[in-house]
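User: Could you write out the 3D structure of this protein bound to adenosine-5-diphosphoribose? I've included everything you need below.
Assistant: Certainly. Input first, then the structure.
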Amino acid sequence: MITVVGAGRVGTSAALQIAMRELGDITLLDIIEGLPQGEALDLNHACAILDLDVDVRGTNDYKDIEGSDVVVVTAGIVRKADMTRLDLLHKNSEIIRSVAKGIREHAPKAKVLVVTNPLDVMTYVMWKATGFESRRVMGFSGLLDMGRFRYLIREKLGVSYKSIRSMVIGEHGDSMVLLPRLTFIGASPLSSFMDESVINERVERTRKAGAEVIKLKGWSAHHAPGAGIAQMVEALVRDTKEVIPTSAYLDGHYGVKDVYTVVPCVLGAGGVEKIVELQLNDAEKELFMKSVSVIREAISQVKW
Ligand code: APR
């Protein structure tokens, strides 16, 4: 069973895309009464149309998450115009702690995929608050940022997504580190297809893609997060051993300790089964370290 905590836009989009991959039955949990039940009913109707033999259940009670293999956490508030980043950090930390308590008590063997922003900090809070081994607590977002970059590459080059391989590391935020040097079209480096100035422009647009979505449609992305979450859940449930950019706990990897940030990870039934250490050049290392220090600073603001 897969549980999705938070039956808002991202949670329901993730639930639909998980259902479409038939990874198991789904429990949707939210604090608002009626909301997860109503969304579950709607999703069951979608499954009936699509011939997906998946049961979706809505609940407000953590007892119903018992037996979950994976718990996806999208619960939280979305930053409003009058809120600072710090206000958001404090409010969502409280929410993550309350969700962690429910998971610890009712799904102590689950792997936890955190989606709530600020992502890397909330994943760290979840890890601390559950007390789980770090390999069982991880954060989403790498696939989202990488997907946005791949979209902009395909838009320019017109080659299939299947032939675009890339990677992203660091914070899910302004300091994210895209890696054009380690981006390949087929087996050739991106730089043999695009001028440096075009690559830099695409990197900058990727960094601002989330804001671009909000500006146009009025609220934040949910289709793309839903797609990426389902891909990660599939790797965990089906034990695919796929290398996915994941916010993982670094314990000396990349020369960094005691922080969660995005790095390539092998995902499987054990959670984060391996952290892949890329051979970064000096410039990439510097950007990564700066990004890590942004996350560290934010973690230091959390009221425990
Ligand atoms: N327990 C369970 N659910 C909660 C809790 C809680 N303590 N607090 C809030 N929620 C629920 C809300 O009731 C709401 O239904 O979380 C849901 C959030 O949904 P939306 O407001 O639609 O937000 P969404 O766009 O889905 O984003 C959720 O994902 O990508 C991130 O930045 C995004 O942090 C945000 C999160």
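The longest strand covers residues 257-268.
User: Perfect, thank you.
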